[in-house]
Structures
1.
Amino acid sequence: MTRPSILFILLTFYTSTPAFAESDDALPNLLPLSVSTPLLSEAEAIEKNGFPSDQVRFVLIDESAGRVLRSNLEDRVSIPASVTKLSTALRAADHLGLGSRPQTRVLMDSAGGLYLQGGGDVALDPAGLEQLADDAAKIAPARPRTFVLDDTRFERRSLISPVFDPTESDNPGVGALALRGNVYALRVRKTENDFETLTADQTASFRTVRNENASENGEMVTRDPRASGDLWRLNANAVRKLLVNKPVGAEVKVAEMPMRDAGMVAAELFARALRARGVNVPDPVRGATPSSAQTLAVRSGPEFSTLLRRMLEVSDNAYAETFGLLAQATTTEKPAMPQAAAGMATWMRGLAPEQNWDGFRLVNSSGLTTDNLVSPQQMASFLRAALGRADLAPVFDLLKRTQQENAVLRAKTGSLNYVRALAGSLRTTRDSSLVLTLFINDPVRRAILNRGPGTPGYKEASENSGDWNERSLALRGDLVNLWSKEL
């Protein structure tokens, strides 16, 4: 095995929370009834936090009667960010069922070829692959003729969004065979040379990478990234992260890394596990499983209720896109992400057919885009319809919640720079049950950021985004507390 001459690199899998352009913040705290709300109106809250009124769009609807109680520009579409994931969760519940489980299968054809078939279990981990190998090795031939990775359930993507940073863990690849949310941790410690000498090019030349901290996941090896689809390549952004906090002595530092092709990584790990059990499989190649193949082993993932809860709580983009594709795959052969988004948009319209859907658009299922557009009224009407269905209402119990006395907020948040969103249900201190949607968007400065560095206004927009984000959080809290006490 070729050893790196500069650094010793350790790889372990884990699941990250969103970290870069899209982050899922906590719900606003509800104030006790004894604490008076100093603001008398939404207009005062908006002015206090320094926003023009046209950047703040919201609607509150009485859940039972459908009556609009408070609103501002509720018919204008805005960027929903990760509020999109609430729609994705509801559609997954409808099409897949909260109690069902995604499955990963090992099959064999009549000629002795093996197939590892992905079923969209985005939480599949190395331990699950080991269990599959245990079961399959009992039946599989000692020398299978071929070993095929079948991730044809839906179209594979090497990253979720081409607009957002491709080196960040929130923007990994998506495929029917996944591995721990398609994110891994790169651990680095300094040896004899200075850490700054590490470069992306040097890392790309590493033939193999070993994990000697094997207590959880065992040894992990990958081929040369140049020959196997850029599986582990250390990108420039990860180098920057590690340089900020350089390892000292034997200290280990970590960078969060996206996997571009988690399916091939999983197939290679599975092949190694089979070889360790006496099944000498060849290297994996991609293909489709013939209908006549016989099942040797099955690994069932967690129930979708558990997976959806995680997606909603940590706003995991890979989970969301996978669930959107799985839902679309129930009606479309090998769907792609745009088809899944279009299918969800059609389903949402069908759930609230009386609503005017002008301007509504979805291009993905996670919200990692500025091209998704929905108005507060459209979103609230859809959520109210979902709450009225016995099979969909339990999804709202999977949301984060905050409570103060008898006031309860259950909602999904969403945020990008210059985008803040909130949607869900609110039970007020007066026992009113409301559906709410709130979007705070600055579309002009968000569009400047989308155009990238070097464009007019980019530096100023980038430098001011932190202040805007803080003020939008404060405004969101002020509005929710006003509503929880006054309605």
2.
Amino acid sequence: MKNSNEKRNIHVFFDGYYFQKIYNNYLDENKMLNTEKFICDFIKYEVSDKLEIPMKRCEINGIHFYIGGVAQTNGHRLESALLNLGVNIHRLRLSPDAREKGVDVRLALDAYKCAANKKFDVMVLVSGDADFVPLIDEIKELGISPFLVCWDEEKTHTRTSQDLIDSVSPNVLMINEILDSRVNKNPFKDLLLTRVNSAASPVVNNGAAPVAQDLRSLLVETIKECEEKENGWVLGADIGLILRKVKKYEFQETGKKLNELFQDYPDIFETKTNPFAVRLRLNDQPDSGNFTAGTAAPRLNRQSNFIFNPFAQVPMSAPRLLTKQELDMEYESHIITMIEPGRDYGFIKSEQEYSDRRWNNYNFAATEVRNRRKEELVEGMKVKFSLLYDPFRSNRDNVPLYKAVNITVVD
């Protein structure tokens, strides 16, 4: 028995048919399930709470998604979102008659092998199928703590086997009940679902002034679509342009100016004047400052803000979210585009190759180069650098993308 100070390794196993049905049901209701928050934060919090250990002692180091055959349209959207998180997708080539049972058998075999080899201390099963009861019994015999993530809703005809619930109890996470509960204190439950329409933007009441919750979501998503300046600030002019032209937001409906909209939510947005700018309020966001060429501005890696758009078509071979370890690494490559007169940025070759050539490089600002002036930078220079999440390109292309920062030219 581990004490509360020891780390718990967690593996999550998805019954693909089951979870895809849940995911599609949310889409039918114009809601998008944030898979990153669901897997990496929501589940981890619930496990730590039930085991009565600090959340920082829980580490999800294995996520497995099992599906058979060829995914339908929404299936591709879901799988692309999971791939961005580094999920291991196990696609089984089975006949239609044997597909669902075959997937369950493979999941159970893989989970048992991992448990027998002591690869995890906690197994989280996302399913509602009674076929997994024998697996749960065997897992417990090995000293593994099993958890069940499930839904039970009449309107979607989603039912969870009572035998499965009994075998895992009390470690049962009935998601619809948790989301509706006023007692549950999971801080991530309000971040799981985002209202969307066919353009994957918040619902805005047929052009009328949005209700408070929808307006707040609209403003947050608009900021994410704008290009960030130093320290996460976004110019009000850029925000207003997207609100009017892209979001079709009608300011006259509320009778408020742009700055007044953001000032209504001081707990979420920070604003400044001359020129008017906004940024999301984060406790560890560094203060703004004036930076000159040759100095690197400290910024926060805000890749957790990335939310996959399920309505966009994204190739299966696409960039993924980087781990904290990868973000802390130093990389080495070479400049592939020179800084030209009148331009303050260039591109560095990435180590990956994707079908979309725009993803095969990191853009960088001249101010990020520590030991050279802009005029001295030429194509082919070898450089060392670290990576910072790029919200503007990520929201534009619907994949997590990064830019090069803290750059040093290697002599």
3.
Amino acid sequence: MKRYVIHGFGRHRERTRTALAHACLAAVWLAAAAGSSAAQVASPHIENAVAEFSALDKVTARISKLEVPLNKTATFGSLRITPRACYTRQPTEPPKTTSFVEVDEVLLDNKEKRIFTGWMFAESPGLNAVEHPVFDVWLTGCSSPIRTSAAPQQPDKAAHEPGAAGPPPDAEPLRRRRVPR
């Protein structure tokens, strides 16, 4: 019985490389299999008509709640906030509220300067919040559901389809053989 040594770089270097290569291949295969099953089981998102924000005026320490319909613009101080999309999950799923937002600053000469364009996440407000010297804006939620996205594929059907990741359910397990070096 041969013993494979994972640590050390002495005379066991070839065995270590082979063991590490096999471990890496197994990890890649497991990650691909987990990714394909996660995509099949992913919950549909709910499109909403209204994005809800909180905004902080740092000078007066005033926090305001803003409810902005999609593709409409709300003004807070010198900022103009325009949500383009707002998604939530089903109530039975872990929360994940996201919104694609554009924020412009109105300058003193009445020109607009885009200071933020991107996705905001209600569960991680510090991740992509608007940070301005005078104002902060972050997403708090979405309301007024419009529709739910299409239901995901059932895992049983996806596993039997040609081209699906992983072996078919009735296939024999792969047998590995060792080749002496």
4.
Amino acid sequence: MDLVPTRIIVIDDDPDIRALLAVALPQEGCGDVAGVASTVEDAIALAEEVQPDVIVTDLVSSTSLDGAHPYLEGLRLAAPGARIVVFSGRLRTNRADGVDAYVTKSGELAPLVDAIGRLRSPS
């Protein structure tokens, strides 16, 4: 399967997760990590600046489950062409929130890599 080139941004409030994904996703062939952020405000600004193909985001600590929809909507408005992957240990969000894939943090990177790969496949 040929994959289209991909620019990714990673948003997580855990610095270890951000660092791990910034290194591991390119090594796994997912694409280039063009930036990382830890807060809602920084995430939306980064998405607007980078215009990534894929956004990998946790529901960062300042985002309650009730606040997930406005946060995800903000990402969608900032980078309308991006596919959004929620990578979180929290409950699933609703697909209506603009999420293209949901991957539960389980200690395994393979499900995230697979989800990004599916989103990168040419239509």
